[in-house]
Specification:
The protein contains 13 helices and eight strands. Helix 10 runs antiparallel to helix 11 (292-304), helix 10 (273-287) crosses helix 13 (347-363) and helix 12 packs across helix 13 (347-363). The strands form two sheets. It has a six-stranded parallel β-sheet, with helices on both faces. The relative contact order is 0.12. It starts with 11 loop residues before the first strand and ends with a helix. It has 365 residues and is α/β, with parallel strands linked by helices. It folds into two domains: 12-159, 3-Layer(aba) Sandwich (Rossmann fold), CATH 3.40.50; 162-363, Dehydroquinate synthase-like - alpha domain (Dehydroquinate synthase-like, alpha domain, Up-down Bundle), CATH 1.20.1090.10. It holds the Pfam family Fe-ADH. Its cofactor is Zn(2+). It catalyses: glycerol + NAD(+) = dihydroxyacetone + NADH + H(+).
């Protein structure tokens, strides 16, 4: 029997300058906030955040994020938060910071507020975290009983981040409908354990349509640090639509292959999450025998926003066949989602598709 589940954050707030509202939004969740950000992010937003919380009379403690969404980092931060007696956990920054903060809040059974400072991933809205080892190798997904209580996205701040990160969010978002369709076809389960709802599929499709329609012009605006209606639409697609879409409609091969890339060493790990997901999306499209022109459309769009479509751009052009098979083996692992595309796929099938994307991409004009 089908079982449909739809999960979402309690509240989503987006707009230019909304960081000034953070204190008033947090005041309904608790009295003392545990703030987590890396040094770069805190330098950018710290003074505005302090001012906003002080205006509301909220007490807070700031702690530096060490850079990896690992079990040891989660335990370290949770111990400090307990010692400080906080009752709201607030993450400011990118995907790994936000995934860590969700885990810390889960450990403490506290409310959690998410403040992305880049529109580079779909992590903010979800009730899960991607957990890595301290060395950055994919380990597992960690699931939570509820989504964040607040997601607050200041588009003016996001537009100041490097355009490469904005483009990476577009690439991450473009995987949403590609993977959702695979989950629906294979009658697999979403990330919240249900069949994809009509709403989830509609959101995933709207995400793809928004990004392909406005993604390039928004990217060019962010290169100039501008906030335009197209930028607002794409930030929403990168963050809210993609987040709701992937969680409620499910993941398949694109993100599993991204995770598989952690099986190899080298310069690939200097790439962003979205850059690796872009190549994973193309690899999934090859594995599911999408029409040539459909794959070519994605290749051309990725190129227009600077995303990698070749092994050279992925820094894997000299990788051995055995290492490509290792990527495929990790992607096909029991704890990942490649089986939602086809549980019969092998590590060698994935390795062949990775090479086929490179060959096809080089033929696209």
């Amino acid at each position: 029997m089908s079982r449909f589940i739809f999960s979402s954050p309690r509240k989503y707030v987006q707009g230019s300058g909304v960081i000034a509202e953070l204190g008033s939004q947090l005041a309904v969740l608790g009295a003392k906030a545990f703030l987590v950000a890396d040094d770069v992010v805190w330098e950018i937003v710290g003074s505005e955040v302090r001012k906003s919380l002080e205006l509301e009379g909220l007490d807070f403690h700031f702690e530096r994020f060490n850079g990896e969404a690992s079990v040891s980092e989660i335990e370290r931060l949770a111990a400090i938060a307990r010692q400080q007696g906080t009752d709201i956990v607030v993450g400011l920054g990118g995907g790994k910071t936000l995934d860590t903060v969700k885990a810390v809040a889960d450990e403490l059974e506290h409310s959690v507020a998410i403040v992305p400072t880049v529109a580079s991933t779909d992590a903010p809205c979800s009730a899960l975290s991607v957990i890595y080892t301290d060395q950055g190798v994919f380990e597992s997904y960690r699931f939570y009983d509820k989504n964040p209580d607040l997601v607050l996205v200041d588009t003016a701040i996001c537009a100041q981040a490097p355009a490469r990160l904005f483009a990476s969010g577009i690439a991450d978002g473009l995987a949403t409908f590609v993977e959702a369709r695979a989950v629906e076809r294979s009658h697999s389960k979403s990330m919240v354990g249900g069949d994809p709802t009509v709403a989830a599929m509609a959101i995933a499709e709207a995400c793809e349509r928004t990004l392909l329609t406005y993604g390039f012009s928004a990217f060019k605006a962010v290169e100039r640090k501008l906030v335009t209606p197209a930028v607002e639409a794409v930030v929403e697609a990168n963050t809210l639509l993609s987040g709701l879409g992937f969680e409620n409609a499910g993941l398949a091969a694109a993100h599993a292959i991204h995770n598989g890339f952690t099986a190899v060493q080298g310069d690939i790990h200097h790439l962003t999450h979205g850059e690796k997901v872009a190549y994973g999306t193309l690899t999934q499209m090859v594995l599911e025998q999408r029409a040539d022109e459909e794959i070519a459309r994605y290749v051309r769009f990725y190129r227009s926003i600077g995303m990698p479509t070749s092994l050279e751009e992925l820094h894997l052009e000299n990788e051995s066949w055995d290492n490509l098979v290792n990527i495929g083996a990790l992607a096909c692992g029991e704890g990942d989602t490649l089986g939602n595309l086809d549980p019969g796929l092998s590590a060698e099938d994935v390795a062949n598709a990775i090479l086929a994307v490179d060959a096809f991409s080089k033929s696209v004009q």
